[in-house]
Amino acid sequence: MKTNRSVPPSTVVPILVYPDVRAAVTFLTAAFGFVERTRIGEHHRAQMAVGVDGAVIVADVGGDRSGPRPSGNSLTIRVRVDDVDAAFARACCIGAVVVEAPVDREYGERDCSLGDPGGHCWQLAQSVADVAPEDFGCTTVSPWPVYHSSGTT
Question: 49 is in which domain, residue-wise?
């Protein structure tokens, strides 16, 4: 795949719509540890990175773009973190809305869910054990590749 310094290098990049792009960038940076990489106009768009290979684009409301509706949730963004309890506390201090406090799951994850000022749902997750999918009733169809700290398989 050809690289392009003008776009996030991630394979999947959610585009999240907010009524105030700058406020969203400030919130995502403080609450979830995102880093702004590219600003497209002062209030139009921002490209943000998180972790080794995560990215989102923050876009303004307009044209065919509108934020989430007040009732229901059509999207949850999952972000892997080193310490879910610390990340949860930081996000709450910044004003994130608690949807679900941190909880340990049978599949080896500790996670929580939070809402942001734009109405998007975020799940912060930390691996606490290596559990085979078959151990909790799932089927491995095709195993995930093992990534190294350099981001290669």
Answer: 15-136
User: How many angstroms separate the Cα of 22 from the Cα of each of 19, 25, 28?
Assistant: 9, 5, 10
Closest C-alpha to 78, from 26, 14, 153, 7: 14
pLDDT tens digit string along 119-143?
A: 899 999 999 999 888 898 888 888 8
- Chain centroid to Cα 146, Å, comes to 21
Nearest to 113 by CA among 79, 83, 82: 79
- Is residue 57 one of the residues assigned to a domain? yes
19 inside domain: yes
* pTM summary value: 0.79
Amino acid at 79: V
